[in-house]
Automatic annotation (TrEMBL):
GO terms for cellular component: ribosome. It comes from the Bacteria. It holds the Pfam family Ribosomal_L29. The keyword Nuclease does not apply. PANTHER family: 60S RIBOSOMAL PROTEIN L35/50S RIBOSOMAL PROTEIN L29 (PTHR10916), LARGE RIBOSOMAL SUBUNIT PROTEIN UL29C (PTHR10916:SF0). The gene is rpmC. This is Large ribosomal subunit protein uL29. Signal peptide: none annotated. Belongs to the universal ribosomal protein uL29 family.
Length: 67
């Protein structure tokens, strides 16, 4: 799981790329869960929270740029 500080140091392009990777991983984890092949169930929660962290950071940056 990445910390908030891990994402703070990244540029907007890096955040978009990380978000895409996490969404792809989340998709794969959903399939693994559906077929009972999920090795680490806690990873689903970690990925979901990391996606939320990135989206929150993007929203904060957008709001700060709009002021």
């Amino acid at each position: 799981m990445a910390n908030k500080t891990d994402f703070n140091g990244q540029s907007d392009d890096q955040l978009v790329e990380a978000l895409g990777n996490l969404k792809r991983e989340q998709f794969n984890l959903r399939f693994q869960a559906a077929t009972n092949q999920l090795e680490k169930p806690s990873r689903v929660r970690e990925v979901r929270k990391d996606i939320a962290r990135i989206k929150t950071l993007q929203a904060q940056r957008t709001a700060a740029a709009g002021k």
